[in-house]
Amino acid sequence: MPIIYHTSFVQLHHYPAGATLETEWLGFVNSEQLRTALTEALRLARQHRVQGWVANNTLLRTIRPADQDWINQVWFPEFAKLGVHRLAIVESQDALNRMGISTIMQRATAHAPFDTQYFADAEQARRWAASVGTAAPAR
Question: What is the extent of the structural domain holding 56?
C-alpha cells in the first residue's frame, strides 16, 4: 500500500491496481491541516486518475462546522469532477465525527455522482472502492 503523501496527521495511499486513493487520517486536524490535506488529495487524485476513494476516518476527530461548510461548498464540487465511481467511508471511532460526516454527506448529495458505502473495516472499504467494474451494492 504505497504512501504518496505523509504528514503527522494524514497519509495518502494510492492503489494503482484498483485506481484508488485512500485518505487515512491519523487523529485530530485543525482547519488548515484538513484543508491542505484535502486539497493535496484532490491534486493527487487528478494526477493518478483515481476511480475509487477510501475516506479512512477511523482516527479522525470532530470536524468543525466551518470546515464542514468548506468541504461542501468548495471541496465536494471539485471532488465530483474527478470521475470517482465509489466513495468508501470508514467510520470514525469518534461519535461527533460520525455525526459531522453524516451532515456533510447529506448536504453533498447534489455533488455526489458516485456510489457511497460506509464501513467499520478499512480492508473491506478498500476492496469495495477498488472494485469499480463490478456491480455496486444498493445504497
Answer: 3-130
